[in-house]
């Protein structure tokens, strides 16, 4: 945290009954307890009194609607509050105040964060008047995904928190005698409590419960249903309740209107119905809960419903629709349980809240977001061969992002990509067009560091233009005062005096170079790169997680691969120096593996635009069956497919890397020094140059891999453990360079 004591402004539309409003009140009180000065701005409501009782000042500001007059007043009032109160950070909790504060943020420059409590309608242009601040708190994973999908908020700008519950205030020991007296509840009554705003957008489950009360009353002795909440639909709800009470002949349904003493209203009940924060508050009181609301139905909550509860913030988004029959069925199911089972459900709910949903954790999460916003974390630009639908480079980017996050919480990453929208979609990071000079230079003004890599970027065997592009990006970063790191690069081959001279000149000015193999280190020494700190580590992709073999088997079935046969994975690419008989040699070798050992060849195009045609040509030359993975797969899916193979022949580097991660014996087809280097540092000897490829040599390697399978597998697994640790060093060094401006190696 930048300061021990912050002046914090929390802004929302109003403070009537609702989960978001309770969240704000509890957050304000906890921040106040921790020594911060907290001010709340809203149009007012029932919770204002509770705030004032805790010494938290409230300003009444008309933030409750889009009325232009109120918006103008809101702008003036909020601007005055921020100035007069010397606010350090502004935290908005609803769309209208976020819109207003977003405009003020651009003028006044205060640190600005928001919390997303629910999903908004994005139609009719509303999407474009929504502002999510510099950093955003989301109260569930599905809201985080909603922000990324609909508003393109980078994942690094979002922190998922919880609806924190005060477990001392909400407990089974809460005194409720006055409530029972007020509502005429006796000790013999069986009470069901429902709490929610009674707005039309929130009252559906309350109405469904009311519809089922006559049936429930026939089976549940001395039934009382307490419905708490106020809103624009309250009178309709009251009319329905009055009709049912009249039909039954006594007051079974009790409406309290809007209340703030929620803990005492929950206390008399045997069963609670509701969603979100109210459901968690009831759990804290050891009340079994049926989760039902406008957005769906989860039902009687127990261990089996935990994950869907967490994923939807207990709001049922995406679940089946709630209806009267579901509610009645679960209510009757609960009351048919033994007392022991009822007690178990109650205890489980409270333990869950204490473990996962404390107010302290909610405040911790929020303060971390404040820290991000106050520190103004400058960007880290990431340059590489990204956005070209190449699984190897996609794997590198995924690994780089994950490794940096391991050592730097929510890094502000900006990736230079050929397909920025696709890179954002796949990796949740800000991405800009790698060919847009103005955008790149603009971001360099806001950046602290450039990461160049991974992959073999510094080479001109495939393209001199490519070499100069990456050197130019590095040179621009240096001129703009950025720290520069070559991240687990492969270097070379390099040819041409001018290319070598330029490479040496530029790389001698960077701050840190990590390399994925020893041969790259030798190239740097040979061309005179001696000034930066240089460390040999390992390819970042080696830090990717274990393959999901169940998913891999599913993808192989979709590709028509027969079940039960051992699989020979094959990765080839079009290359000018391939032997003239290359396609025929690989086809004959695959047929040999199929005839002698029963292998079923599966061709895996790592970059479909370049690999699919040659793979199809080889398959057409084979006499036995083979499959081609035609789908464009994510990094995780590609790794899962390779993880289901039993032996690999790989020309693409990252096919071989995936095989090592999965512990699969492999044969390297060397078209570039990086393939030979990888085979060397993984201690694998089965490699052969593509320009001198002979069928008998490839067949001999297949025989050797099959015969020595177990020893090769053990050797690969042992070496992989070492290489993974070395690869993780890259992320640690990148974070250290970013934070400290230098590294100790």
Task: Describe the protein in words.
The strands form four sheets. Strands 3-2-1-4-5-6-7 form a seven-stranded parallel β-sheet, with helices on both faces. Helix 3 (68-84) packs across helix 4 (95-108), helix 7 packs parallel to helix 8 and helix 10 crosses helix 13 (339-356). It has 745 residues and is an alpha/beta fold. Helix content is 47%, strand content 17%. The protein is built from 28 helices and 26 strands. The chain folds into four domains: 7-160, Rossmann fold, CATH 3.40.50.2000; 177-356, Glycogen Phosphorylase B (Rossmann fold); 377-536, Rossmann fold, CATH 3.40.50.2000; 549-724, 3-Layer(aba) Sandwich (Rossmann fold). The model has no long low-confidence stretch (mean pLDDT 93). The two termini are 29 Å apart. The longest helix is centred in the last third of the chain and has 32 residues, at 709-740.
Secondary-structure blueprint of this entry?
Elements: E1 7-11, H1 19-33, E2 37-42, H2 48-53, E3 57-60, H3 68-84, E4 89-92, H4 95-108, E5 112-116, E6 135-138, H5 141-151, E7 158-160, H6 177-182, E8 190-195, H7 204-219, E9 223-228, H8 234-248, E10 253-257, H9 262-266, E11 271-274, H10 276-284, E12 289-293, E13 296-300, H11 306-311, H12 324-335, H13 339-356, H14 359-375, E14 379-383, H15 391-407, E15 413-417, H16 420-427, E16 430-433, H17 437-445, E17 447-458, H18 464-479, E18 483-491, H19 497-507, E19 512-515, H20 518-527, E20 533-536, H21 549-558, E21 567-571, H22 582-597, E22 600-603, H23 608-621, E23 627-628, H24 635-643, E24 647-650, H25 653-662, E25 666-670, H26 673-681, E26 687-689, H27 695-707, H28 709-740
Helix pairs in contact: 1-14, 3-4, 7-8, 7-12, 10-13, 15-28, 18-19, 21-24, 22-23, 22-27, 24-25
